[in-house]
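User: Show me an example of a complex going from sequences to C-alpha coordinates.

Assistant: Sure. Here are the input components:
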Amino acid sequence: MTTASVGIVLVSHSAELAEGTANLAAQVSGGTVTIVAAGGTDDGDLGTSAAKVEDALRQADQGAGVVVLPDLGSAVLTVRAVLEDYGTAGSILLADAPFVEGAVAATVIAAAGGDLKAVAAAAEEARHARKL
Amino acid sequence: MPASCEQEITLTGDLHARPAGALAVAAGRFAAIISVTAGDRTADAKSVLSVMGLGATSGQHVTVSAAGPDAQEAVAALVAILSEATKVGG
Protein backbone atom coordinates (compact mmCIF):
# COMPACT_ATOMS: atom_id res chain seq x y z
CA MET A 1 0.00 0.00 0.00
CA THR A 2 1.42 3.34 -1.03
CA THR A 3 -1.69 5.33 -0.13
CA ALA A 4 -2.18 6.66 3.38
CA SER A 5 -4.24 4.61 5.79
CA VAL A 6 -7.23 5.87 7.74
CA GLY A 7 -6.21 7.32 11.12
CA ILE A 8 -7.77 6.36 14.46
CA VAL A 9 -8.49 8.65 17.42
CA LEU A 10 -9.33 7.08 20.78
CA VAL A 11 -11.19 9.42 23.11
CA SER A 12 -11.37 8.20 26.68
CA HIS A 13 -12.13 9.71 30.08
CA SER A 14 -8.88 8.08 31.20
CA ALA A 15 -5.49 8.91 29.68
CA GLU A 16 -4.21 5.47 30.66
CA LEU A 17 -7.16 3.71 29.05
CA ALA A 18 -6.71 5.65 25.79
CA GLU A 19 -2.94 5.03 25.72
CA GLY A 20 -3.24 1.37 26.64
CA THR A 21 -5.90 0.73 24.03
CA ALA A 22 -3.82 2.54 21.40
CA ASN A 23 -0.80 0.37 22.28
CA LEU A 24 -2.85 -2.81 22.07
CA ALA A 25 -4.41 -1.88 18.72
CA ALA A 26 -0.99 -0.94 17.33
CA GLN A 27 0.52 -4.27 18.43
CA VAL A 28 -2.30 -6.34 16.98
CA SER A 29 -2.36 -4.47 13.67
CA GLY A 30 1.40 -4.39 13.09
CA GLY A 31 2.11 -0.75 13.89
CA THR A 32 1.49 0.79 10.46
CA VAL A 33 -1.61 2.84 11.32
CA THR A 34 -1.58 6.23 13.05
CA ILE A 35 -3.51 5.81 16.31
CA VAL A 36 -3.74 8.84 18.57
CA ALA A 37 -4.92 8.68 22.18
CA ALA A 38 -6.92 11.62 23.55
CA GLY A 39 -7.60 10.72 27.17
CA GLY A 40 -8.26 12.68 30.32
CA THR A 41 -8.70 16.40 30.92
CA ASP A 42 -6.09 19.10 30.28
CA ASP A 43 -5.16 18.83 33.98
CA GLY A 44 -4.67 15.06 33.77
CA ASP A 45 -7.86 14.22 35.65
CA LEU A 46 -10.56 11.81 34.54
CA GLY A 47 -12.67 13.44 31.83
CA THR A 48 -12.35 14.58 28.26
CA SER A 49 -10.62 17.56 26.67
CA ALA A 50 -11.71 19.36 23.51
CA ALA A 51 -8.14 20.59 23.00
CA LYS A 52 -6.75 17.04 23.20
CA VAL A 53 -9.40 15.75 20.80
CA GLU A 54 -8.66 18.51 18.29
CA ASP A 55 -4.90 17.90 18.46
CA ALA A 56 -5.48 14.17 18.05
CA LEU A 57 -7.64 14.69 14.95
CA ARG A 58 -4.90 16.76 13.31
CA GLN A 59 -2.20 14.20 14.15
CA ALA A 60 -4.27 11.23 13.01
CA ASP A 61 -5.30 12.63 9.63
CA GLN A 62 -2.85 11.24 7.07
CA GLY A 63 -5.09 12.18 4.14
CA ALA A 64 -7.49 9.22 4.16
CA GLY A 65 -9.74 10.46 6.95
CA VAL A 66 -10.11 9.63 10.63
CA VAL A 67 -12.37 7.33 12.63
CA VAL A 68 -13.03 8.49 16.20
CA LEU A 69 -13.98 6.07 18.98
CA PRO A 70 -15.39 7.43 22.25
CA ASP A 71 -15.18 5.25 25.37
CA LEU A 72 -18.47 6.33 26.97
CA GLY A 73 -21.43 8.35 25.80
CA SER A 74 -20.36 11.57 27.46
CA ALA A 75 -17.13 11.63 25.44
CA VAL A 76 -19.38 11.98 22.40
CA LEU A 77 -20.42 15.47 23.57
CA THR A 78 -16.81 16.62 23.53
CA VAL A 79 -16.11 15.07 20.14
CA ARG A 80 -19.25 16.58 18.59
CA ALA A 81 -18.37 20.03 19.96
CA VAL A 82 -14.91 19.79 18.39
CA LEU A 83 -16.27 18.53 15.06
CA GLU A 84 -18.66 21.49 14.81
CA ASP A 85 -15.67 23.80 14.57
CA TYR A 86 -13.36 21.46 12.72
CA GLY A 87 -12.84 22.24 9.04
CA THR A 88 -12.93 18.87 7.30
CA ALA A 89 -15.75 17.18 9.19
CA GLY A 90 -16.65 15.12 6.09
CA SER A 91 -13.48 13.10 6.42
CA ILE A 92 -14.12 12.24 10.07
CA LEU A 93 -16.51 9.53 11.23
CA LEU A 94 -17.57 9.00 14.83
CA ALA A 95 -18.05 5.27 15.44
CA ASP A 96 -20.64 3.85 17.85
CA ALA A 97 -18.59 0.88 19.01
CA PRO A 98 -17.20 -0.98 22.02
CA PHE A 99 -13.94 0.82 22.84
CA VAL A 100 -11.30 -1.92 22.96
CA GLU A 101 -12.79 -4.30 20.40
CA GLY A 102 -13.74 -1.43 18.10
CA ALA A 103 -10.25 0.07 18.26
CA VAL A 104 -8.60 -3.27 17.44
CA ALA A 105 -11.02 -4.16 14.63
CA ALA A 106 -10.89 -0.69 13.07
CA THR A 107 -7.10 -0.53 13.17
CA VAL A 108 -6.71 -3.94 11.54
CA ILE A 109 -8.99 -2.92 8.66
CA ALA A 110 -7.11 0.38 8.32
CA ALA A 111 -3.83 -1.56 8.20
CA ALA A 112 -5.25 -3.75 5.43
CA GLY A 113 -5.99 -0.64 3.37
CA GLY A 114 -9.69 -0.24 4.14
CA ASP A 115 -11.31 3.13 3.38
CA LEU A 116 -12.99 5.44 5.87
CA LYS A 117 -16.40 3.76 5.70
CA ALA A 118 -14.92 0.25 5.94
CA VAL A 119 -12.87 1.18 9.00
CA ALA A 120 -15.86 2.76 10.76
CA ALA A 121 -18.03 -0.25 9.86
CA ALA A 122 -15.42 -2.64 11.31
CA ALA A 123 -15.51 -0.70 14.57
CA GLU A 124 -19.30 -0.78 14.76
CA GLU A 125 -19.52 -4.47 13.82
CA ALA A 126 -17.25 -5.24 16.79
CA ARG A 127 -20.39 -4.97 18.90
CA HIS A 128 -21.50 -8.35 17.56
CA ALA A 129 -18.21 -10.26 17.96
CA ARG A 130 -18.37 -13.02 20.55
CA LYS A 131 -15.40 -13.82 22.77
CA LEU A 132 -16.60 -17.18 24.02
CA MET B 1 -14.81 -17.73 -12.88
CA PRO B 2 -13.95 -17.63 -9.21
CA ALA B 3 -11.42 -20.14 -7.94
CA SER B 4 -11.59 -21.80 -4.58
CA CYS B 5 -8.81 -23.23 -2.51
CA GLU B 6 -8.36 -24.88 0.88
CA GLN B 7 -5.41 -25.97 3.00
CA GLU B 8 -5.00 -27.42 6.46
CA ILE B 9 -2.24 -26.56 8.92
CA THR B 10 -1.41 -27.72 12.41
CA LEU B 11 -0.78 -24.78 14.74
CA THR B 12 2.57 -24.73 16.51
CA GLY B 13 1.36 -22.13 19.01
CA ASP B 14 -1.88 -20.61 20.27
CA LEU B 15 -3.68 -18.16 18.00
CA HIS B 16 -3.24 -15.09 20.23
CA ALA B 17 -4.00 -11.45 19.48
CA ARG B 18 -0.88 -10.59 17.47
CA PRO B 19 -0.95 -13.56 15.09
CA ALA B 20 -4.71 -13.08 14.69
CA GLY B 21 -4.02 -9.44 13.80
CA ALA B 22 -1.32 -10.35 11.29
CA LEU B 23 -3.69 -12.88 9.72
CA ALA B 24 -6.59 -10.41 9.43
CA VAL B 25 -4.41 -7.59 8.04
CA ALA B 26 -3.08 -9.94 5.35
CA ALA B 27 -6.54 -11.36 4.60
CA GLY B 28 -7.96 -7.86 4.15
CA ARG B 29 -5.64 -7.24 1.21
CA PHE B 30 -7.21 -10.04 -0.87
CA ALA B 31 -10.45 -9.86 -2.82
CA ALA B 32 -11.35 -13.48 -2.03
CA ILE B 33 -13.77 -14.44 0.70
CA ILE B 34 -11.56 -16.22 3.23
CA SER B 35 -12.48 -18.27 6.26
CA VAL B 36 -10.53 -20.01 9.00
CA THR B 37 -11.99 -23.13 10.60
CA ALA B 38 -10.80 -24.62 13.88
CA GLY B 39 -12.79 -27.55 15.23
CA ASP B 40 -16.48 -26.79 14.81
CA ARG B 41 -16.00 -23.01 14.59
CA THR B 42 -15.43 -20.92 11.49
CA ALA B 43 -14.27 -17.29 11.40
CA ASP B 44 -14.13 -14.64 8.69
CA ALA B 45 -10.35 -14.30 8.23
CA LYS B 46 -10.73 -10.54 7.62
CA SER B 47 -12.32 -10.01 11.05
CA VAL B 48 -9.63 -10.00 13.74
CA LEU B 49 -12.22 -10.32 16.51
CA SER B 50 -13.78 -13.30 14.79
CA VAL B 51 -10.36 -14.98 14.38
CA MET B 52 -9.48 -14.34 18.05
CA GLY B 53 -12.88 -15.74 19.02
CA LEU B 54 -11.92 -19.12 17.52
CA GLY B 55 -9.78 -19.79 20.57
CA ALA B 56 -7.49 -21.95 18.42
CA THR B 57 -4.64 -23.55 20.34
CA SER B 58 -1.29 -25.18 19.68
CA GLY B 59 -1.58 -28.58 18.05
CA GLN B 60 -5.03 -27.89 16.67
CA HIS B 61 -5.74 -28.46 12.97
CA VAL B 62 -6.89 -25.28 11.27
CA THR B 63 -8.28 -25.04 7.74
CA VAL B 64 -7.94 -21.92 5.63
CA SER B 65 -10.49 -21.74 2.81
CA ALA B 66 -10.87 -19.07 0.16
CA ALA B 67 -13.13 -18.38 -2.79
CA GLY B 68 -12.48 -15.68 -5.36
CA PRO B 69 -10.04 -14.63 -8.07
CA ASP B 70 -7.01 -14.57 -5.75
CA ALA B 71 -8.04 -17.54 -3.58
CA GLN B 72 -4.85 -19.52 -4.13
CA GLU B 73 -2.54 -16.63 -3.23
CA ALA B 74 -4.70 -15.82 -0.21
CA VAL B 75 -4.56 -19.34 1.21
CA ALA B 76 -0.81 -19.58 0.62
CA ALA B 77 -0.21 -16.23 2.35
CA LEU B 78 -2.41 -17.00 5.35
CA VAL B 79 -1.02 -20.48 5.88
CA ALA B 80 2.49 -18.97 5.84
CA ILE B 81 1.43 -16.41 8.46
CA LEU B 82 -0.19 -19.07 10.64
CA SER B 83 2.91 -21.25 10.55
CA GLU B 84 5.22 -18.32 11.38
CA ALA B 85 3.15 -16.16 13.68
CA THR B 86 1.95 -18.87 16.02
CA LYS B 87 5.55 -19.77 16.90
CA VAL B 88 5.66 -16.75 19.21
CA GLY B 89 3.06 -15.89 21.80
CA GLY B 90 1.15 -12.69 21.92
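The lines above are the inputs; the final block is the predicted structure for all two components together. The helical segments of chain B are 17-27, 48-52, 71-85.
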